[in-house]
Write a structure and sequence with these properties.
This protein is α+β, with helices and mostly antiparallel strands. Helix content is about 50%, strand content about 10%. The radius of gyration is 17 Å and the shape is globular.
Length: about 200
């Protein structure tokens, strides 16, 4: 990418349960911390809603049944109400699930993450209890599904184009590699002739 291209704006979806979302978002977070001049919109997307069986009520009507929705709401509240702490909380909530084996639906565990990252956990839980956080998650999810036909995480969105992406490795704090990895994804997304690329084997 050229220097002018690096200021591209893009969105990327997440649900804290997905290990591939964790990989992608760690790359994005690592690159942003290292100075990547991107304008990134982080979009919550509920895998629980995606997997609702036909005829069953939407997960928005029964959030207590979903294993990831509490943490997803918490991350969204921090994104909107304490944005300066979002990257740290975002990374820590992924770590809660994938590094520590914690439960994303456990309020005490989510509160612990928030407090450790310097966020008012009472404020976040009050937003969730009010129903406002769930409505924001629902609006972002449905906008992604309706406008860009998003069906999973992580999905990158640039303008009118969207692509589901899996990165196999974590960033390991390597700013240069994280930046290169995301820029490769953005380059492919901008290539209008490419519709699909999927490896038939995984050489790992």
């Amino acid at each position: 990418m050229t220097d002018s291209d690096t200021s591209i704006a893009f969105a990327v979806t997440w649900d804290y349960r997905c290990p591939f979302a964790r990989n992608v978002h760690e790359h994005v977070v690592t690159a942003l911390r290292g100075g990547a001049p991107w304008q990134v919109t982080f979009l919550p997307f509920s895998l629980g809603q995606v997997h609702v069986e036909e005829g069953d009520p939407p997960i928005w009507d029964r959030p207590q049944d979903d294993s990831g929705l509490l943490a997803l709401q918490a991350g969204t509240v921090v994104r909107d109400k304490a944005s300066e702490r979002f990257l740290d909380v975002h990374e820590a909530l992924f770590a809660l699930r994938h590094d520590r084996g914690g439960q994303l639906r456990d309020e005490a565990s989510v509160r612990e993450v928030l407090a450790q990252q310097g966020v008012d956990d009472d404020m976040v839980m009050a937003e969730i209890a009010s129903g406002r956080a769930l409505e924001v998650v629902r609006e972002d999810h449905e906008r992604a599904a309706d406008r860009w036909s998003v069906w999973g995480v992580p999905t990158f969105i640039v303008g009118d184009r969207a692509a589901f992406v899996r990165l196999m490795h974590r960033s390991q704090g390597d700013v240069a590699e994280a930046t290169r990895s995301i820029e490769r994804v953005l380059d492919l997304l901008a290539w209008s002739e490419l519709n699909e690329l999927k490896h038939t084997t995984i050489p790992f």
